[in-house]
Design a protein that fits this description.
binds iron/sulfur cluster; two-stranded antiparallel ribbon; 8 strands; 191 residues; two-stranded antiparallel sheet; alpha+beta; 43% helix
């Protein structure tokens, strides 16, 4: 749930759609978090990382897909280990009745970008989804941008920050990962 599309995103959630509720692909295809994003969420909510993050090993097909989508995902999943948001009954555990419980600035980067992303050659793209109300009937990505009250410049700023967090993820994630591994009973969930 991005920061700027509050109205359309609220309608989307009321309809039981929305990017914070998982579709058929479920947990298998969730994008990874960086350790810095986990720390920001923990500081903003007072929750322990284990309360809202799961460490797992996604299937090879998803790793390939993510790496082809953008090289930053390689840096976010060193050794094929992913930190992802915890899912409860098919929904992100941070989703409340009125939408995301996090302030916009504390949300994961990919939540703030969605339904947009950038290609490896830095062009803005829409991650097409039939579940996204902002995309329904839109004929051009600019139409989606307008419905979300978003600007390309702002998305570029968020994406640059995401890239810098990804670049420092591998070194900083070890402490967090060992904490999650302990909390999860010795091994990353799904390994
Ligand atoms: S963190 Fe917030 S915006 Fe992101 S998936 Fe969870 S509820 Fe949605
Ligand atoms: S799926 Fe699209 S319209 Fe729905 S909450 Fe997410 S970004 Fe907003």
């Amino acid at each position: 749930m991005p920061a700027n599309g509050a109205e359309i995103c609220a309608r989307c959630h009321e309809l039981g759609r929305g990017c914070c509720t998982l579709g058929a692909s479920g947990e298998r295809e969730m994008f990874p978090l960086t350790h810095s994003e986990v720390e920001v969420i923990a500081a903003a909510t007072g929750l322990k990382p284990v309360d809202f993050v799961v460490a797992d090993r996604p299937a090879a097909a998803f790793l390939d897909f993510a790496r082809r989508l953008h090289p930053l995902f390689e840096r976010c999943m060193p050794g094929g280990v992913r930190l992802r948001l915890r899912i409860t009954e098919g929904r992100c555990s941070l989703l409340g009745p009125g939408g995301c419980r996090l302030a916009a600035a504390a949300r994961p980067m990919y939540c703030r970008l969605y339904p947009f992303f950038f290609t490896p050659d830095n062009r803005l793209m829409v991650l097409m989804s039939p579940r996204c109300l902002a995309q329904e009937g839109a004929k051009h990505w600019r139409e989606v941008l307008a419905r979300m009250h978003e600007t390309e410049d702002n998305l570029r700023r968020i994406f640059e920050l995401y890239q810098s967090l990804a670049a420092s993820h591998a070194g900083g994630s070890r402490h967090l990962l060992s904490q999650l591994v302990t909390d999860l009973g010795g091994r990353p969930q799904g390994s």
